UniProtKB/TrEMBL annotation, chain A:
It comes from the Bacteria. It comes from Liquorilactobacillus satsumensis DSM 16230 = JCM 12392. Keywords: Membrane, Transmembrane, Transmembrane helix. This is Uncharacterized protein. The keyword Transmembrane applies. The chain crosses the membrane at residues 12-29, 35-53.
Automatic annotation (TrEMBL), chain B:
One of its GO terms (cellular component) is plasma membrane. It is a multi-pass membrane protein. GO terms for biological process: phosphoenolpyruvate-dependent sugar phosphotransferase system. This is Galactitol PTS, EIIC. The chain crosses the membrane at residues 6-30, 42-62, 82-107, 144-161, 217-238, 245-267, 305-323, 335-361, 416-436.
Length: 79, 461
């Protein structure tokens, strides 16, 4: 899914659809709808996360780099 | 003037509205553009609503299964667990509860001015926890003074907990300027000695995150799968039909699938707020990094948190059945946030440690809730906020900081052993606080899993 994979708007839309489906399942007590929530949730986790949550990821990378530079954690090469 | 009614009216819209408005006001105060401040507040509110929905859905679907399980296994425990919602309802109905609102704000201001904390606690919704502690002490001692002193002690502890976790939360979530000063994380203090022992047991010193587990046990480590299996087990143990058991399984799986996504979504939107606040503070207060205290759901994107809380559901029910002297069956409070949040922050997301600590410390909560059964029942009857039929008992199975509350209740009646216990607990807290200040990121000490081909090589990512 190369185009879908890079489009933040589409992944945001999919996220909201997922939340709405979850809400519907809860309100209507139609728990089978959660099957789709699981499918969309997993899709977002494995394909959409990198597109949707870049800020958090970059921030964590930056913090990790700071920890490495401060020698709080270290990288060891595999033999 | 009925101050209690005024406070309750302010807080009645719920945490999602109250905290959103506070964040908007703080955002404007820190110099954010109006549109950005409003958006930050709105995103936070929407996020909290979403999370509340997910949590409530989990409790709603698990509660009847727990009741069915108890009925079918013949577990008959006298006290009804009404969870945190029942506990907060009866606490806010206590005539003196509003005073603790002032205690929380007053203690926070004094500590900020005296530079004994960097936490600006925006989590006003959870002031009821302070009021509950106050009532417990008042119930034991008959003294409002001791009740207020207990509230002050808890407020101080909460703010210091917020200071303790702030760097770790930034490292864990990637968001600057926020922390969790919730008293439920005080469980980490009592769990610290066993966690420290685990440092000497090799198996606990590997990186047991949900991601790492996947390399070992593949699809079974996927939180959706784990949650669904637990849900199915609970449903079948409660003698549900296959269809209903599958509904339960799928719903638990859906919560595990959606919650981390929901949490990340709204937390990402808090980044502009956190950055603006941080810059404001750096410009005006040299050498001080303030952090905003928020409610624990901001940690909701942690998969390890949810896996721990869901896996511990059948554990708490099993303990309730077998522990001698226990009077409470976990129902509304069956999801133990204290063990989840406390374990997450203490261990840095080491799932194995969180689960083992959860199993070891679960009895503490059942015995704590049994001890406070009479307190909750009297408060419920006195306030009329929750209907308790004659001869019935109510309690809260996952009561926050049961150790601290028990010791303060006993100590302030003059019990010397309770005083020794309370002082020891506070000394332990101080020790753990200092330890976290020196090593604020516990996850850094864990090694990557050994690779079988070359057991001597260790690679850190």
């Amino acid at each position: 899914m190369p185009d879908l994979g890079k489009s933040k708007r589409i992944w945001t839309f999919i996220s909201f659809i997922t939340f709405i489906l979850f809400g519907l399942a809860a309100l209507l007590h139609q728990y089978w709808i959660n099957i789709f929530v699981i499918i969309f949730g997993l899709l977002i986790k494995y394909y959409g996360s990198n597109v949707l949550f870049t800020k958090g990821k970059e921030r964590r990378k930056y913090l990790k780099q700071k920890l490495i530079e401060a020698r709080v954690i270290s990288i060891k090469k595999q033999k | 003037m009925n101050w209690n009614s005024i406070v309750q009216a302010i807080l009645s819209p719920g945490p999602s509205v109250v905290i959103s408005i506070l964040i908007m006001i703080l955002g404007l105060f820190f110099g954010m553009k109006v549109s950005k401040a409003v958006l930050s507040g709105l995103y936070l509110g929407v996020g909290f609503i979403g999370m509340s929905m997910a949590i409530n859905q989990l409790v709603t679907i698990v509660t009847p299964a727990t009741k069915a399980l108890a009925k079918n296994t013949g577990i008959n425990l006298p006290a009804v667990d009404f969870g945190w919602t029942g506990a907060s309802a009866i606490t806010w109905a206590w005539a003196v509860a509003f005073v603790f609102f002032a205690i929380e704000i007053g203690v926070n201001l004094v500590m900020l001015v005296t530079k004994t904390t960097n936490v600006v606690n925006a989590d006003m919704w959870n002031v009821w926890g302070l009021a509950l502690t106050g009532y417990m002490v008042y119930f034991a001692t008959g003294s409002y003074i001791w009740a207020f002193i207990a509230g002050v002690i808890q407020a101080i502890i909460s703010l210091k907990l917020g200071d303790m976790w702030s760097e770790e939360i930034e490292n864990m979530l990637g968001y600057p300027g926020i922390t969790v000063p919730h008293i439920e994380a005080f469980t980490a203090i009592i769990m610290w000695p066993v966690n420290r022992l685990m440092d000497f047991i090799p198996i606990f010193n590997y990186r047991w995150s949900a991601k790492e587990l996947k390399k070992k046990i593949g699809i079974l480590s996927e939180p959706v799968v784990m949650g669904s299996i637990i849900g199915l087990i609970i449903g079948l143990a409660g003698r549900y039909t296959i269809a209903n058991a599958l509904s339960l399984a799928i719903t638990v799986g859906a919560v595990m699938a959606i919650f981390p996504v929901m949490a990340k979504f709204f937390m990402d939107s808090l980044t502009p707020f956190g950055t603006t606040m941080s810059n404001f503070m750096k410009n005006r207060f040299k050498n001080r990094e303030f952090v905003i205290g928020l409610d624990w759901p901001v940690l909701g994107q942690s998969t390890e948190l949810w896996v721990t809380m869901v896996v511990l559901i059948p554990v708490s029910i099993a303990f309730a059945a077998i522990l001698p002297g226990n009077q409470v069956l976990p129902i509304a409070g069956v999801i133990n946030y204290c063990l989840g949040v406390g374990g997450l922050l203490l261990t840095g997301g080491n799932l194995l440690r969180m689960l083992v600590l959860g199993i070891i410390y679960q009895p503490l909560f059942l015995y704590g809730s049994t001890y406070f059964t009479n307190v909750f029942t009297k408060l419920a009857r006195d306030t009329g906020a929750v209907n308790v039929p004659k001869g019935s008992l109510v309690s809260w199975s996952s009561i926050e900081a049961p150790d601290l509350r028990f010791l303060m209740s006993k100590a302030f009646t003059g019990n010397i052993f309770a005083w020794i216990g309370l002082v020891s607990l506070l000394i332990l807290f101080w020790f753990v606080y200092r330890s976290f200040k020196k090593n604020p990121v516990p996850s850094k000490k864990y090694k990557e899993q050994l690779i079988k081909k070359n057991p001597k090589s260790v690679v850190a990512k």
